[in-house]
User: Which sequence fits this backbone?
């Protein structure tokens, strides 16, 4: 693996409940370099909560605990995210860490022009002038393959398509030059053609900027073809880690079950196999 950007060791996210604590994430450990790391699993497996915990976005009464949660910078400095205040996280988000959420229409301010939202991020983190932020925003819109960026700059979120909205979100998250991008189901609301375009844009930007990418998805085909490594999560914990190109060689029965349930072109089946869960999979590893 390349230069380490993030170390996560025994990350735990817990929510109190009437019947005791619910452990949404349990002892998740991994390192991220300048690579594309996929996190896959069913809904409720803890994928998104893991990403939000890294970003400091778990709301109270949720609790984030970890043996290590360290962010490294290009000069070799370390930032302990466990000790970070909300004010400290606000300084990191956008400039060091960025997160693209699933549906842009819930993330963009509906009464603010999309270009102004991108420029606001640039000005907040880089202390740039209005003219500098405007130029940087147009350059970033161009970088995410949006035609006529001057026109799109002045549009409102309800005036753009889903694919364009997702590109605008990527532009907003990357304009301050973060080291790590967390993409939480960034293409699930898009059709297949637009999915491919958005992933190609993200891949190009990540490689050219030397960033680390965490792609959270339930789409095994997408992750295996796009990422370098894959973490498979079940019941809040990582049950298997493997190279994306060798996902078909996975050994854990949960991963094998997910792979078996995928439809296959040219292989007609009356029924897709059902995943048979073993209670032992939910036990602490």
Assistant:
């Amino acid at each position: 693996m390349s230069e380490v950007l993030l170390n996560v060791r025994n990350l735990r996210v817990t929510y109190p409940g009437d019947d005791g604590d619910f452990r949404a994430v349990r002892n998740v450990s991994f390192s991220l370099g300048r690579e594309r790391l996929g996190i896959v699993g069913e809904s409720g497996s803890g994928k998104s909560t893991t990403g939000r915990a890294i970003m400091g976005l778990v709301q109270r009464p949720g609790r984030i605990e970890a043996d290590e949660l360290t962010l490294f910078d290009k000069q070799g400095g370390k930032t302990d995210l466990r000790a970070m205040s909300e004010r400290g996280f606000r300084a990191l988000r956008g400039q060091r860490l960025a997160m693209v959420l699933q549906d842009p229409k819930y993330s963009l301010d509906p009464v603010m022009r999309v270009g102004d939202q991108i420029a606001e991020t640039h000005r907040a983190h880089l202390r740039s002038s209005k003219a500098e932020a405007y130029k940087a925003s147009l350059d970033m819109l161009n970088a995410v393959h949006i035609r006529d960026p001057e026109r799109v700059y002045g549009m409102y979120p309800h005036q753009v398509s889903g694919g364009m909205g997702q590109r605008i979100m990527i532009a907003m998250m990357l304009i301050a030059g973060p080291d790590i991008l967390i993409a939480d189901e960034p293409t699930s609301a898009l059709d297949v053609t637009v999915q491919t375009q958005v992933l190609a844009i993200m891949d190009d930007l990540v490689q050219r900027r030397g960033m680390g990418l965490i792609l959270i998805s339930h789409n095994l085909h997408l992750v295996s073809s796009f990422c370098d490594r894959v973490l498979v999560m079940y019941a809040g914990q990582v049950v298997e880690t493997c190279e994306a190109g060798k996902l078909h060689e996975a050994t854990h029965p949960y991963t094998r079950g997910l792979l078996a349930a995928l439809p296959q072109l040219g292989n007609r089946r009356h029924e897709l196999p059902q995943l048979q869960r073993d209670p032992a999979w939910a036990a602490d590893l």
Remarks:
- The two ends are 24 Å apart (CA to CA).
- Residues 192-209 form the longest helix (18 residues).
- The domain at 1-90+229-285 is CATH 3.40.50 (Rossmann fold).
- The mean pLDDT is 90.
